What does this fold into?
Amino acid sequence: MSAKYQSIKGFADLFGAQSALFTRLEDSARACFALYGFAELRTPILEYTELFQRGIGSETDVVQKEMFSLLDRKGRSLSLRPEATAGVLRAAIERGLKEGEIQRLFSFGPMFRYERPQKGRQRQFHQINCECLGTESPFADAELITMLLDYLGGLGLNGLTLRLNSLGCRACRPGYLAALRAYLASLAPERLCADCLRRREQNPLRVLDCKEENCREAIAHAPELANYLCEDCASHFAKVRQLLESVPENLAQIVLDSRLVRGLDYYCRTTFEVLGPISSASAASGLGAQSAIAGGGRYDGLLAQLGGADLPGLGFAIGMERLALLLEESPAPGLDFFIAAQDSAGENKARDLAFVLARELRKQGFSGEMAYQQASFKSMFRQASRLGARYCLIIGSSELASGLIGVKDMVSGGQIELARESLGAYLQKAKVGREEN
Ligand code: HAM
It folds into this structure.
């Protein structure tokens, strides 16, 4: 019989190994970001639609085609957040971000975009998001990117590519846009796709990012943004690059890419994306080398645009599903012990002891379960193995008589007997050895 209710297309349940992996990704992020002075912020998943229209830009695909919007009972338009930045800034403004103060905030959580679901692209997906508000310093850009790469490196990823660009500022971008518009206007209409024909007037930067082969050829000789940067933007960008290059074990290959414009309208100056390794995992996962696992940049006008003080800011978001695809399947989190306790008919002595022992070990920091039901030792060993237990502790009639506990190594199959008081030290030694490997 098929299930009566199914999850919504593009919305997935997370459980088992994937859920454990997400927890690991979040735990590692908390630990890494704390080293850089970031604090956690949790914002609501529903916001007024207008926040995203003003924040992300009403001409963007995200706002035009991808939002999940609804009317509340008073007829106000609300939307599920398609990204975190607008909500984080709204929260910072409400709390009163002051001039001269730097706020570093990270958040995790689900985002919603009505896109065509495929591998690494869902309608509900999760981001790890960081924002640094209140500073224009290129040191902040370099630190933020370094933190992102440190985090990804700490997860064991290498062979990453960092695409880096500067989009200029309010002073120099208009000059570039004028040159780009003129170039695009000179192209015969058949050289551009329907979307780009629309974009060339309204949002010409996005034409640079089009994936259509025809459009890519057409813009091959488009003016380069790098040649239009004002002095301030050029030296800001040079400093960011110099700082990134000065990090000795920087694990990403830095590729300057003047066509990196990103899909959200708020960016200025530094923009970047991190692409996964071209080899093995990404190929096997089907994610493809070109899918960004993270993206971000500066948005110096955005706080003011949302009603706050005219303060600069920058940030990034990592797509957790994409990151999970790149990391090898994480093994199910195993238990430290499983207690196989077997009583004679009508008795509970072995299980009573197991109950007390399990609690004793958990208090020492070991994870474990006990067998509630009576079964053969063989079937209890199978249960221990299914649970991924490292050791199976055995309590049967002979252990009750001797006062010792049987300890079966579930990896080697070897078995010894230990006094109850020595169990903690024994499990600890094995655990430390495992973590060192
Ligand atoms: P974004 O590039 O739109 O930037 O998204 C960041 C990351 O989220 C992407 O690189 C990708 O890994 C993941 N992502 C986006 N859409 C999906 C999807 N439909 N399914 C799965 N993963 C997805 C932002 O969202 C900006 N708010 C980042 C930022 C923060 N910029 C400054 N601060």
